[in-house]
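Dear Dr. H.,

I hope your travels went smoothly. While you were away I took the liberty of generating a structure for the chain from your last submission, since the lab meeting agenda had it listed for discussion. I wanted you to have the full record in hand beforehand rather than looking at slides cold. The sequence, exactly as received, is reproduced here:
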Amino acid sequence: MIKKLFKPNIILFTIISFIIVEIGMRVFSIDNNCVLDVICTIALTFLINYLYKNIELIKNKTSLITSSIYSFLISMVLMLQSKIVFSGNVYGGKPDENYFLDFAFIDFIKVLAGFAVVFVLVLNLLIVVKKYEEKLTISDKESVRISNVKFFFICFALIAIPFTLYLLTYAPGAVLGDSTYQIGQALGKTTLNNHHPVVHTYFLGFFMRLGENFDNYNVGVLLHSIFQIVLISLGLAYFLLWLKKKNVRLIYLLLVYFYFVANTVFAAYSIIMWKDPLFCLAIFLISLIMFDAIKSNGVELKKPSTIAWYIVYAFIIIFFRNNGIYIVIASTLALLIMYNKKVPWFAGITIVFIALSIIIPKAIYDKNKITTPYKELLGIPLQQIAGTINYSGDINEEEKEYLESITSFDNWKSLYKPMCVDVLKNSNNFKISVIENDKAKFFGTWFSLLPKNLSRYIKSYLLGTYGFWSIETKNSYGFVDTYIINNRYGIERTDYIKNLLGFSLEDVWYSKVDYLGSGTLFWIMMLSIILLINKKASKYIVIYIPAIACFATIMLATPVAFSLRYVFMFAYMLPLFIICPFMDLKQNKIKEKKKK
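The corresponding predicted structure, in token form, is as follows:
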């Protein structure tokens, strides 16, 4: 026993682990003690030893290259986020409160230490996938003995009930600033524009008009919350049924179910009057269609029902958020590249639908003079220019003259908030018309400043997108809200549970809503992609294209550094990220009936 415990390789691995842990603790300034040192050293030693014993399972170039790339990226992220000083104030945080520290030699050590740990973790995960991928599913004979219809409606009820209890605690639902802005437009009290998509605004307006019929807007908000709960519960129940059809074991189905109901973030999103919950749900569900299309080698896309549901989800994605058209184009293009000749009906219908989704709204908006505020597209460039001005970057007289025609340099500096561009672009002193009248001039100036101020541009970008790429950095801004903003519609909170029973579920269950950060979810998705590549199932990366396209558009135009709501499809899809690499991903051999 003693000989086994003190094998030469174990001693060597322990020494290596101790060195890595000590370096990591110190360069990342982690408050540690001897107990934490011992725990981390033992854990890392175990992982290195496990990797040593099973190295044959992943002894190939693909595993080493993909794991190296991912580990390097994560170590860079860990290093970069250690350089950012964040006060916790997103909207009002000034440049002396939220800023980027200068680089030093120790940052190189951080990257090395981070790489070593993450590389060992990723390789171990590859081994686990290799060893246990067959354990996730069962044979058809062992599957849950209940019809798909019954299973679906049982899941729907078991999700809808706790969500409804949440609604009864926070009735009639969460109504925020964006909500009242859209309500005002829908009811004709303010000028209609496409800042928030017109279709979604009218969608909210439908429920508010119902409230008017009862002479109580609270009824309208409540009906919206109920409708949204039903749709989200149906979507999540379908996912559980989808997993059941893939013969995923009952224990994992239960874990997925509890994932959706135990943490109240999903219940909270089901009653928020935002466009994001249904928009992100549609991205999730369209990804499942893409999975089935790949699994069936394109045959699934020949079914009229599949095409119909694809169009339904695509409609919600396009008309519930302004970046949706790019997501649908990217997703459809990926499928057409793979299966174009095999699925002529799918190709024709989706192309026509996308074309009409661009042409018809534009014609209607132009006729009715409905505009889309151009400043919503300028978040990143404005932050980079403002950051350059604030930190006395290299700007010539011609560039300075143009930028001052938009707003004075004093305003560029005083209104610059490194993690939120809204203060600057929404200022009364900010002349957006100057940019709109000559877009080429603005982007020409932005581009001419880039090479001279590259470092400041990069730092401004990293600060302005901080929450979307960093690991477990969170903020309440755009995270999840359950309040009702002060409004002129008489909408107010009522806790029906407390009124009926004398106590509130808020005190015993719903007291705190928490969840993973946006950046954490993104990197979990990227890890899932690495696992799929190593499983030689690269085709299935396509199912993440809708989520990746959404994330990419956010990273190009986000007005704020934190907002889980913008990428909430990651939260819906987290079980898919984890389960997918363990599934049987061999393509089904579906024999199509030949026409006589």
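Two observations you may find useful: The longest helix spans residues 217-245. The beta strands are 84-85, 99-100.

With kind regards,
E. W.
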